[in-house]
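This week, look over our next protein:
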Amino acid sequence: VEAHNFDIRKHLLEYDNVMNQQRTVVYDLRNKALSSEDMSATVLEAITETIEDKVAKEADPGIHREEWNLKGLVDELAFVLMRPLRHEDFETDSHEELSERAKAAGEQAYHGRESEFGPEVMREIERHLYLYTLDEHWRDHLYELDHLKAGINLRAYGQRDPLIEYKKEAFTLFEALVRETREDFVQRLFRVQLEGAEPVQPR
């Protein structure tokens, strides 16, 4: 009985260790944001990675050019960046060129927001939005991990190790957390308005 109870406690600690490792990563991100006076490089990186995800989704370099969904890509970019984009500006047969044009549009949109708010206000907005978005997604992620842990032992009926399955699925969930946090943050950055300011409508 003692050995059985020990095994149970050991497995619970291993489950908790997965969560603690992820918590360490998230708290490192939070602390960097809190202590940073200028997050602009991190923000530009987030915009670039979000755009690269969109390009890979709608214009996979592994498929023929005729199968690219350029219209869908430009519409998605316009939605994320909250600015009008012309489809003809993205007409190219080169995936690398397409990616560069998309990222250039992202940088231009970012600098436009910075000019709109001013550098000092922009730095405060970036930090506040990033922390808010990260905390929101982290709370949801903890709930998902608890839900996953509650039902993971059923995997044993399929001759699979519940702990290994938990680690794999927890990692997949964490990858989604990072990706979704980044995209939500970028979208909010291009939509936020200062109180009393006139909202900017996409043309």
